[in-house]
Every structure is written in structure tokens, then in C-alpha cells.
Amino acid sequence: MNPDTKAPAEALFSVAGLEVALPDMAAKPAFGRAPMIQILKGIDLEITRGAVLGIVGGSGSGKSTFGRALLRLIEPSAGTIQFDGRDITHLDEDTLRPIRRRMQMIFQDPMSSLNPRRRVGAIIADPLSLHGFDAISRRVDDALDHVGLPRSFRQRYPHELSGGQRQRVGIARAIALEPEFILADEIVSGLDVSSQAQVLNVLGSLVKELGLTLAFISHDLSVIRRLCDQVMVLQRGVVAEYAETDRLFSAPQSDYTRELMDAIPLPDPNQANW
Amino acid sequence: MSAFLTVDNLSAILDGSDHRVLRSVSFSIDTGEVLGLVGESGAGKSMIGKAVLGILPSAIRIVEGEIQLDGHNLTKMKSADRRRLIGATAALIPQDPLTALNPSRRIEPQITNRLVDILGWTKFDARVRALELLNEVHIDNPERVMASYPHELSGGMRQRVLIASAFAANPKLVVADEPTTALDVTVQKQILRLIRELQARHSTAMVFVTHDLGVVSKVCQRLAVLYGGMVVEKSTVPDFFEGPKHVYSRSLLAATPKYTDPDASLLPVDEGVIEQVAAQVRAADREWRP
Fold it and tell me: Which domains does chain B have, with CATH numbers?
């Protein structure tokens, strides 16, 4: 399937001409406003319902900013974002709140994104009560079952868990709210290789089982290849390439994509270009 | 010829317990050779690097074994002598280029102070050497970088500065502790090439601590795989990537991402394998008497 020819009706997200500018605090004068830096420079994209989209790019390419703009954690400076047919580009926080439940996020660092003073059960339950869910206890159990953690972990604190287990708590917290869309921002980059695979497998099977739409931000093309249907390569705020995963890896079109691929140190002493 | 660095049967404990954090670790490195220390978090790989440089945390105590550096037995030396010897022969490339540099000082003194204060160079010589090194790590405008503060430089630039600083006093041994983990892949490639280049040019012996087998395959000639502070496998790099001998190393290699081979990489490590290697660690502990 060519991503360009999909009917707009099945798009969960439609992004058109998206621009984001953020203040450059490093260049801020002692008095007065900081100059703005253009981070995203006109991005068009549709995320199909049920698709797993990979977003790659070097540091500073704008991949996290793009993810945050999708979730409206940042307000774009130009362009539009439609979520499920509704324009959310400039909605205020009160109007956004019911929509927020439907789009969840899993963070890079599971230690700083889990409250160290709350038990796992409470960490998963809090957003549920915030959004007015019933049967919260059962939902917490279900979420833990889904990510393959024992229910007894409700009583544990984050510091009592391994990195991979913590990240699975992050996933459980996100899926407990029955969202349609999940943004996963570099969720395995802080993990040991042995737990990376586990977390990816858990996430991959949940996406299928629950019919989720996933945007998966990573700097690691190997991880992207494992999980994603389409890949968007970002370079300095511009889409360098957007393609089906298989095609991207078999025939990368942009020089930047090739450069990223070549730069990955494969576990192979005879890798070319090194 | 005997090795430049020999670690022989080294065990360390957490003070006040009988819990070993290093378990009878042995390896050696010749001049001009790069040894990779590979393992997951908590495997003790950084700890070994710190032991070699004599910068173990005060709560960790070496209870057994020897470290021989350039023919001197570090474990039997007086601490002042040991510091002088290590300061003159060895250097560290740290993991995080932001925290390793003092944010409130310019780059120049951060490179030259060690040369002046510890090695007794003149300020002029130290400055000349610093400029020369910044050139060597391919920094285009060394004068400007010397006058900059760390926050004015990118992550890759900061890591170049630290590499320059590590090689400043012509060390015969460099310990690189995950030097590229905080960097972007394209920058990582440049930095790894740079480390390889400097290491080869100066025939430095090098301990390269990393969790990434991909990185090991690019910079090391030999490697030691660690689990629970114990060396589970030692091998040359070509042999290892042909097929590791230990079951844990095999799992580790199969878990390593490899985008060219999506079906045979990024495989979860089997719990049975972990149990097996953990049992090996316990068995070693039962036989061990301090």
C-alpha cells in the first residue's frame, strides 16, 4: 500500500503544514523575549487508524517536538492537526481534556515518569479516576495482565522494579485509559538489550490486540524495523523521507536515511563503511 | 613481553557485607590493544574501569587479586604513589560529556590544568598541547572552543573535548566508559572513528566499557562479557561474532538490534539463560573464600 493514496476517512491523525517554533532560551537576552527557533517546518502526514508509525531522526531533528505537537502538549505556530476528524490545533485545555484520554504517551525515562512515592497500583489508577472511570481496581489488574506483570506488583514502588518492568508499568498506565492513540517516545533507549526486546514485544502485541494506533519515536532504525508499518524520517524539522518500512529498508530514497543506516554499528566486525 | 595492564583474580566487596561486586576478574591488555568490557547494567563493567584507575567509590573494597600497570603492582602501592603513577600513565574518557565538564569554567583550563598542576608543564606548553589536540580531534576552530563554556558546545563537541583532554598527556592506557552512549548515531560514528584513530596513532592500550556489542565490533580486538561482576566469556572479536561460546553471550548477541536481520535480532533473553548464568555466579561464590 502506498501511504500517499489512503482515503482521508480512515486517518486518525491528519497533519497539514505543521509548524512549531519554540523560544531559544540559550540566546535570550537578559531583558526581553527570547528569539524563536523554527523547529518543525511544514509537516504533512496522515496516521491511519491501526497503523504503527515510526518516527526517526538525529537529535534536534524535531521528532519529539512533532510527537508533543500531535498530543497538543505544544501549540503549533502554523498548520492544522486533526484528530479523528476534529481540528484540535488551537483547542483550549478544557475542551481538550476529554480528548486527552484518547491519546496517551509513554515516556523515555521510566524512572522520572513514575512518581517514586506512589505504588504501581496508584500510578496506574490515578489517571483512571481523573477521567472518571468505574471499576478502577479491575482495570488496574487488567492493565497489569496485559503487560505481563504480576498483579502483586500493585504494591510495589518504582524503585523496586527493573528498568524493563518500569517501562511496562508506563505502558500499563497508558493502555488502562483505553486510548485510541499512543505516542511512545524513545521508550527502549534507556533499557538493557535483554529487556528492550521484551518491552517491544509487549507493545507490539498490545497494539494488535487492542487495535491501537501507535507513533513510535526512536533514533534506532533496528527497533523501528521490528515494530513499524511506516516510517517518517525527520531531518531538521523537515520530512526527509516517508515510506512503508520494507521499502525504506530495501531502497532508501534520501541521502539522510542512508546516512542514518550506515551510522548504526551493527554487531558485525566486517560491516561496510566503518 | 608481559601485558601492559594485567588484572588478576580481582574481587571487590561492598564494604560491611560479604557481597562481591567483582568476582575473581582476570584479563590483560597489551600496548596498542583495545579490550571491550561488555555487559548489562549492574554487570560490573564500569566498576572494573574504576578499579583500574583507582577511583572506586569508597564503599567498594578490593579484597583479593592484583592490578599490574606497566610492571607496577597497584594493589601493593602506597596510595600517593599509586595516584602519581595512574595520573601519569592513564586517562579516562567518561560517559556523559555534560556532567564531566565543569559548567562554570571555560574549556581551556579544563584541559590544561591537569598538565600544569599534576604533570608540571608550563602554562604555555599546556596551551600549545591543548590546541594541538583540539586539532587532532578535528575541531575546526580550537581557539574559539578553548574560550567557550561547555553549554556553548554540542554533545559531540563536548565529547571531542574530553577525548582531547584524555589524550593530552600521552597516556599509555585509556579507559573509555560508554563514551558514546549519550550521543546521536551519526555523531557516535564520528566519535568512535576518532577514538580508533587516536588509539592507533598513539598505540594506546584501551579498556572500552560498553553495553553495545555493535560498538565493540567496531573498536575492540578482544572482549570480555560480564555478568554479575564475573567474566563469563573472553574471546577475540572475530571469533566472538562468528559464534559466542557461552549461552549468555549468545543470548546477548541475539538480543542486540540489527536492522539488516530483523528476524534473528532483538530477541528477548530467555529467563532460563539468566537463571543458568546466575547459578554459575552463585556456584562461584560458594567456592570462594576471601
Answer: 5-241 (3.40.50.300)
